[in-house]
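Q: Here's a chain of 407 amino acids. Please give me its 3D structure as tokens.
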Amino acid sequence: MTGTERVPRSAIVFLAANVLFGSGLFFHAFLYNFYLDKLGWSPAVMGRAAAALTTGGLVSLLPAGWLVDRVGARWGLLLAGAIGAAGLAAGAVTTATVPIYLAAAVAGAGTALWRVAQAPTLMTLAPPAQRSRVFSWNVGLIIGSGAVGVAIAGATPGWLERAFGVEPLTALRGGLAIGALGTVVSLILFALLRLPGGEASDTIERTRAGVGAATVLSPPAAHLRMLTVVGLIGVWMLAPALVAPFFNLYFFKTFSLSMDRIGMIFGVVHGLWALIVLASGELATRYGVSRVVAGWLFLLGPALVLLPIAGAGVALALYFLQGLAQPAANPLIDQILMERSAPERRGSISSWRNVAADGSAIAGASLGGWVLATGSFSALFVTAGIIGAAAALPLAAGLRKLAARVP
């Protein structure tokens, strides 16, 4: 297979389905607190609803991997779409606290299953020569569509009020329902997917690419080695998790930027991140996955350490660079993990990979808040930068070793 081979149509359908699935999540993330406020609930209820969404996902991650390994990625996606859409739709109509929390937990469970099924599905759909491209497209399109989706979500209730003369609460409920409808449509596209024949198909692909069966690591010792790399991924991801919740406050307090200007800057930056993630897949296709992913891993630490001594313009550039490292590296990391996992264990590896990501996000937000409360932004950025730099070397070495015999 060559790098010029076309991306399969089924992979394009899958990417489109992911964008639609994500639309429900983006609408929910932007509109739900406004909906709860209109119902008269306090920020405490809003926080518990968000926690229920996260908890539902965390509790479901490991069972999701087990399920994907046993019923296949396609059925995992179908169940994810059904569960996710049900939770999002229920959230648009529930008004009491317990149903609100339950709906959020169900939506979180569906989202977790969707996330876990991503990498095994892409591994099956994309030919070896196209995997870096398709893995990166998947992340880049979700990031880019997220920026667009949030903008559309913000405009939808007002449009519904003007177009149909409905009350604000009904308009918010309609906006949430429209988002959930996107997730329902994604379920239809997932149902149309015809995945190749799993392990047998993967063996054929590897044979055509000149890669022997020995390139797939076999359990149990190799499975433990893979989980060690996943643990290193979690440590490296702790660095961006420490700082991500506080950048808006940093630019507001340090450089006196207005909130609307910060929002505009962040929106533009997210769009640029999406484009460069797409370009990262092209680079990995041409120059090798392990080389490109190592570059992103080593970028994070220095960018964070330099932030405290930078002026406003340079600080924005460093913010852009540090924030780019994780979304650009993640799809290539997933590709390496999937290519070196036995087909019957890809769901399990994907679930542990997502546990590492979510665990880092939760621990990082808590630890970052403590560092900022007891120290300063300088202490926060330097701490995160040291963690990122220290974890980059062993993680890059571990990924390079895994990818050594993968084209």
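Q: Can you summarize the key feature?
A: Residues 198-215 have pLDDT under 50 and may be disordered.
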